[in-house]
Design a protein that fits this description.
Elements: H1 10-22, E1 25-26, H2 27-38, H3 42-54, E2 58-61, E3 64-67, H4 71-87, H5 91-99, H6 106-118
Antiparallel strand pairs: 1-3, 2-3
């Protein structure tokens, strides 16, 4: 049984990206990276480690941090959650809003058509 997915906050998502880019990494190395990238203090990094560990997204064992889910999975869930929350689950309504006032190239249109056909 899969647990209900709760969207990540912006800071959580940025933190996950840092983990994916550097894993496996030591927790103290992560403290340094977060200080450099985000201006976080050690306590902020460890609070975020605990939060994402409790959500089941990472593991911090023996001071080594690894992700438990690939970035593609989180991006998919974040996208689905956004469309559900903002557009009542309507992909066409999302696309209408996204493309408002924009032009796309023939190549982009062909790629979108191909994706639609693959997911019918």
């Amino acid at each position: 049984m899969e647990i209900e997915y709760k969207r990540l906050g912006e800071a959580e998502y940025r933190f996950m990206n840092l983990i994916w880019e550097n894993e496996p990494t030591g927790s103290m190395q992560l403290v340094k990276l977060c200080g450099d990238e985000f201006g976080w203090k050690k306590s902020t990094t460890f609070t975020m480690l605990k939060r994402l560990s409790e959500k089941g997204l990472i593991r911090n064992e023996n001071a080594v941090v690894v992700s438990l889910v690939p970035p593609e999975t989180v991006r998919q869930r974040e996208s689905e959650s956004f469309v559900d929350q903002t557009f009542r689950g309507s992909l066409p309504n999302f696309l209408v809003s996204f493309f408002a006032g924009k032009k796309i190239s023939d190549e982009e249109a062909d790629e979108l058509k191909k994706l639609i056909d693959e997911h019918r």
